[in-house]
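seq:
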Amino acid sequence: MAQELIARVKEVIQRTYNVKSIRLDIGGKADFKAGQFLAVTLQNNPELKRYLSISSSPTEECYLEITKKITESDFSQAFNQLKPGSPVSIQYPFGKFILGDPAQDITFLSGGIGITPIRSIVKYIVDKNLGTDMVLVYANRSVEDIVFKDDFDAMQKIYPKIKVAHVLCEASPGFKCIPGLINAQVIKNEVNDYLKRKFYLCGPPQMVEAMEKLLTQELAVGKANIITENFQGY
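struct:
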């Protein structure tokens, strides 16, 4: 059952030029599953309410983290003004975009800020050393848009069963990536055993819809092996 409380901003982290993480102190250990989301209300104003994925893992017990792309919306502008000590009203947890059997090999297909719940799940698996085999295919416009790049680089160094493939519209000299967009051939190349895997899709709604269609129609992946989250936090 979801609980409602007033949290206070503990730390603000600039992730990219237009993405920020806010770490919240909730006065104790957060009770949620990796991949879930929460409702956030700012300035005690019902019009400044959004649903955001939790980007921290339950293993990171000192805070609850939410991460957002900063846009011109009123909510984004209020979010961008948060500072340590600022009060934030939250309700959590919600959502079923969560890890199933850790013995099941999985592939994440993500775009942009849709990486937030995936970061939570991957961090949980790595911290618990669950042995889950993971492939992340992560699409962005450019290397400057990659959220949590340092986190995923660090996790690959300590957890051998994770592979991260970056797909970029604008390739950067010296940065290993796949140019273009995620398509069937990219998945075949990066995930040899894709028919044996569970797929987690998270990103802008149009991307999630396109990826689900690609998996089912072009790669014959069964719908039972596809878990989706249409990211709401724009």
